[in-house]
Structures
1.
Amino acid sequence: MPWAAADRPFLDPAVIARLGTLELKARTIVEGFLTGLHRSPFKGFSVEFAEYRQYMPGDDLSTIDWKVYARSDRYYVKKFEEETNLECHLLMDVSGSMAYGSHHGMSKFEYGACLAASLGYLMNRQRDSVGLTAFDEDVVAMLPASSRPGHLRALLVTLERLRTAHRTNVAKPLHQLADMMTKRGLVVLISDLLDDPAEIIRGLKHFQFRGIDVIVFHVLDPDEIDFPFERATRFEDLETSEEVMAVPGAVRDHYVKQMGDLIERYRRELGASGIDYQLLNTKHPLELALLSYLSTRARAL
Amino acid sequence: MSFLAPIFLAGAAAAALPIVLHLLKREPETRVRFAAVHLLKHAPVEHTEKRHLRELLLLALRIAALALLAMAFARPFLPGSAVGASGAVTVIALDTSSSLSAPGVFDRARQLAKDAIGHASAGDLVGVVTFADTAEIAARPGTDRVLATDAIDHAAVGFGATRYRAALSAAALGIGDRPGTIVVVTDLQENGWDAGDRVSVSERTKIAVVDVGAPPPNLAVVGIRAQADRVVATVHNSGDRAREARVRLSIDDRPSGETSASVGPNQSADVALALPQRGEVAAVAVDDPTGIQADNVRYLVIGGRTKPSVLVVTGSGDLSREAFYVQQALGAGSTPTTGYQPVSATGAQVSTTSGDALAAHAAVVVLSTRGLERHGREALAAYVRGGGGVIVAAGPDIDAEVIADVLGGTSALQMVPPSDARRESRTLAPADVRHPIFQPFAGNAGSLGLVTFRQAAKVGGSGCQPLARFTTGDAALVECPAGDGRALVIASDLDNRWNDFPLHATFVPFLHEMVRYVATARAHAAEYLVADAPAGVRGAPGIAMLSGGTGGAPSRKIAINVDPRESDATRMSAEDFQSAVTHLKETADAKSRVQAREQEDRQHLWQFLLAAMVLTLAGEGVLASRTA
């Protein structure tokens, strides 16, 4: 029976936010998520036998199971699940703008960190190598990819220590990381993408050129999407401290259109480049992001 | 800047209202640390500094509007911005009466008037008033002295008599409530002040008298009358020496006779000239090239009555016996043409008189109704309804019913004769001193109270209005309208029987004023002074044709002559002149208040402030719509 995201009892981010450590949050999300996948197409994706298939001219002779040939006098080849030595890099935006969060929910940074932890937990569980790079206008923390069981703890500790502070320059660390990566793998960018879209897209395409799959999680607060403010408000930029006095009623339409245009541009241009783009509203459950990851991973394998 | 009503400035406190409301309603500023501020920067919003500036400007405009409104209500004015620097006024009152018509005299007066303009203080406004019987403002007070000088140059001597009262009143009017000086340029003729004349001016108004000088020795024709077959002219010599007067008579503009007479110093002489059989108009002239020119000739309509006639109705028709006091009082006059000519008639004679004959009289005084038959009553009633005036003295010879018949039903006059047993002394008091009859007594109304009325009838009626009452409360004088005319009914007699009125000095003017009040508008005299010339007749000596008007009366000739009092060279001193002027004291507060009101009236700054307020509100509206 196919599963549907809307039918699943996902965890409310507000509930997740109240959980103690990042590890606990990640485990709660991933375990609950995996428990719900009854007929997951991803079941048994470790190194194990998959099926027999009748030999077809052109198949590798080394894959022929001679024991079966001895018993049945027919040529069968053994099919195995491919080795899951996927190298995944989590790119976490820790610029000042990620600190924004509505009063009732998680901030974008918390949401992103929680997502990164969950992904790390999931990857580690399926023995994929996972690394972490945190950046604002420069790379501020880097944990090389590894599939060792103890690596998860190092990743979670690194995430716990991260703090938002400076201005954003997404493109620069993207280029740096793209140059550094020697193997094909998967890059997961977790960011609010409030920077120059052209530069960001160019940076992401850099990975594509190197044959690396990319998933972009565009994390936005519901306030940033719907602009629900009512009273005349002085808006102070989290990164530049620049102030703009605005009457929300007068600027809402313009703002929402600008934000919609920005999202649509990312969706359109990244999709055209084969980059998975997922808009994440921080009031929505994190499991949706995991689903997006898994579908991309399956496509990558 | 000063304010006429500074109390309204308290309203400027309302300007604080927007600030107070703002402070009371102020909410803590909402600040949001936001990520996507750069998306807002391109929105059509104002940046903080720009909006702050606009809000400040908006607040300033609102405060300014309220402050301007309060200031406009306070009626501001600039105290120092009066038209004249000093705010004082100098009015030159130039005498143009006929006494200045001697050669060279008026030129001297004009020069003195111009000198007075030159001597006026530098900051004073200067105006010019010319005066004789009446005064005219030749140049309103202003800063342009050329205009004032021009007005003096254009002034000309006339034929009127000197009346200082008119001059000072007009000049005081020109000065208003400002401080000022009235410079009277005159020959100081004593006749310029009528007996009892007084003029009141402000305490801040000074009177300066510039003496033109005594007129030169003068010969004047001061009177002319026709007697049987001759014309008698009265020639007056105002010089210090006897003069030989050459007198010429013209009949209908044709020379008719000439004679000479010696007139002693300051004396008058009657000169008789033969009157031809035919002729309507006579003019008597005397040769006097150096004296006053206006009084050298006098005109007479031969056969014309010189005074308006008043028909006095008595029982026997003997005025000297039954209406002695009325006869004397009506005939009294300061000049040959003033006063009235009493005409006697009995009740029976009135009954046989035609309406036209009655209409020739200025008024009818009814002292007795004896013999006044039905026809006579109807004739009198028609006379009144046609606009005539009747005076009834409710004495012992008056029958109330007859009078009620005469006045008709509308007046519903009731008259109750006094009982002999009831003799009660009472005096008279006007109900309203502003009534035309009592106006001449306004300054001395108490003199009427000296008259004692021993007996009086009760008069009144629904259509009659009491003009005076006795101290007993009864009506003393009532006015009863009837048709186009009116009747005055006095509740006592006029022959010293029931009262002592005829023995008092107020009797003559009272009777004259009553006759003048009820007299018809039709002219009845054949000779008028220049000042009294009927409407439509030029106020200059000569013969004029007076139309009969709409009543169908025939046109007639009248003679217009100068006032003979102008030929009287008796002069007074400047001090005597000043003694007739009363200076009214004003309090300093009243003065400053009046001054402030005048300045405010002149400047109308409140209008500019209101206009500024409207502009401010318009600006506020535009700015507010943009800010919102």
2.
Amino acid sequence: MNASFALLIASSAAFAALLSGLLMLRLEQPGRAGIGPAGTLIALAAGIGLAPGASPSWTPLVVGVVVAALARDGDELLHGECALKLLWVMGSALALSWAGIELLSLATGTPYVREQWAVLSLGLEPTFLWSTALPLSLLIGVVLLGGAPFHFWLADVFQGVRPWLAPLAAATLQISGAVWLAARLDDVDQFPPGARLAWGLLRIAAWVAFVAGAATLMAQRRPERRVGTLASLNGALVLALIASGHGPDMRWLVHWASHLALALTGASTLARFLPVSTPAGLGAPILRRHPWITLAGLFSLFSLAGVPGTPGARVWLEVARALGSTGRPDLLIPLGFAWLIGLWKSVEQLREAFGAPGPARSTVRPVPAAARGSIAIAGLGLLGLAGLGWARLLPW
Amino acid sequence: MRMIDRVRAGVQTLLHPDARVVGGLLCVAGLALVWLPHLWTGALGLELLAAAFWAWARAAQDRAEQLPRWTWLRRPALALWLAAAAQAAQAEAVSHGALPARLAVLLVWAQALGVVWAGLELLAALPLARPFSDRSGPLLAVGPWLPALLPSTGFVLLWRHVEHWTAVPEVRRVALILLIVTAVLATLRAFGRGRWVASLRWLIVADCVLASMLVALAVVPQEVSLMLWLAACGGRVALLAGELRAMAPRRMAASHLVWRLSGWISSICLSAPLLATLGFGPPGISSPWAAVPTAFAVALGAWVAIRRMVEAPERRAMVRRESAVSLSLVIAALTLATGPTALVMAWWAGFEFPWPLGLVAWLPAVGSGAIAWWLERHPISLSKASAEMARQREVARGLATVVFRAFMAVERRVVALLIRLGRGLLAPSRDLHTGDAQEYLLFLIGLSAVALFLPLLR
């Protein structure tokens, strides 16, 4: 797959996500929409579109843009809360990772990753230095991907942040995390002890992320939080892939990033109109009022969960295959568990969208045209991605 | 009504179909998919079947009760999705030319466990949703019949995907034990229930379980297992459907006799090869310890089928005119012929009853059924003791119910204990995740974990 084709796919996905975001922005009150928020969206979409050539040095910039966008509106209390959380968590993680990078540079005398592995292969440096520095340098990647125990921020963003901003912000941050890890571990197999250490740590991180993510998903009742946890599981897929030693190559990263941006956009927009789960299954039957739009949104949600037949299923299967080929397939067990729980909750969400007849006076909340448009764009984008895959026009 | 209104009404019905129609369509599509040989079609079929029950339940008057009652139906579907995913991963790995031994073992186990879980749960052989046959289904008109679909689907799954779950000997062995326990419990429950319709549902479970055991043992060709199951279970399912249509099979003496005979002979044909193999089969397959409870279940099943199926009195002032050979009679005759035909096919394919010990395998069903029939045919000689007999019958049925319920209570306690244990283990992580300040704490825990790992890695 050549770079320009990858760039085209990523750019198209980013453009679709941007268009969806801009449509949702139209629903905001006049004082809250404008050049500023639109500019933020464009900047975040650019982050997604440029994923194939992204650099880890963009990470603080992306975090900064998201935090600034959240902190911009003083009246939005939930935005402020999310901004504080992100700043606290990602700021600390970024500081620790920088410390790790600086330690590695100090030990090897070079800031370039490949050169660092070459220097460390000589065995002149004390082990404790690089074995402390290397895990620290990976920390922000794990945090940005939303792998447990750092999975809370994704659910918080989807519940607390306005719908025009949440999916793009979450997708861009997660993509930054994947790019960070991929860049930090570039060619690490040239230094086998370092590769073993990094892959071992990421293996543990992926185990925890899958198991804790699945357990969280089982307990969640709010659709927005479920979308957040599904996003966290998609982040865990990257951790698992890197832990398998295969690393996310460009084509995989493009597929994953494009899919994530579109699926998060469709699923999170729909989630705003879905009922909170109740044991009786009562709820607003949005599926009966807007069947096609709801199905498009559910397609996005299903794709996040890797339901067979959706483009997301391909991502899950690719990671499973990569894990299997390592000869240490133990990580397939939590992956399978998380996938099953995702599947379970997705179908439950479908039933809740259809709803059970409630009290006579219960009404169905109408979905604004802009939101319907946003869901439709994401759904069509995912369908396009799936179509390209089915037609074998994509190499994944 | 004008033509345009009729068309409009027709279009309205098509666009907004009745929940019964939607459920029916989903159910038919699901059952058709389950019969296909692919695991993913099976999983999709079970998902549609669960959706059909959900569609019926949500439209029912007592939906608050029906909706949670049938939620468990998604579990077998999920188990089969696991198997389908394992198969897909296996195919993917093979297509890329790399299937390490450990991966192959893991995927084969996942497929076996997924298929067995789905099949056993539908057969009421797992302690999670065992008593579903005690209750009516969610659709008003055919509610009492609907639960009979589930064990039948369970058998079809186990039969269709036999190569997946019998590939792992440990899984096959555990499944066999669970099936034996279920056969005993199902026949005990059939014996303990007062209503014939309820007993019939449990007999269907028992038939499906016995047929699945035959599949697990793999001593007769697959087609023979299917025919034996069709004769035994299919006959009873048709009988149950007839029961819901004004007890048609029991209204006429001839129909009653043929149905009784067909049920009995089908049970004999199904149980004989099973008991012969378990009791006196080749080493490695036979297990006499398992033959004893199975024989008990077979004998009790035959007893219930003969004794409980009493002729229904005709109370209608004007009997509806029916054809001389009714559909019910034709089905009964077909099931009567299917069992022996299947045994001939088995013999043709090489299956032989061990001689002379193999004759013992016929005894439980033949003997128990014959005694039941004889007792029913000689009511005069027993009339003096009829009150005492009735009391003893009640005591026996009560005892069967007590045993069944005691077993269920123990099972439920064990399951509840495990669930509580799981919740207890998850509670701390959940508590950490409920407030804002705690989220930071969670982060600190993550950092501490990293800090702890670092010295160890050094």
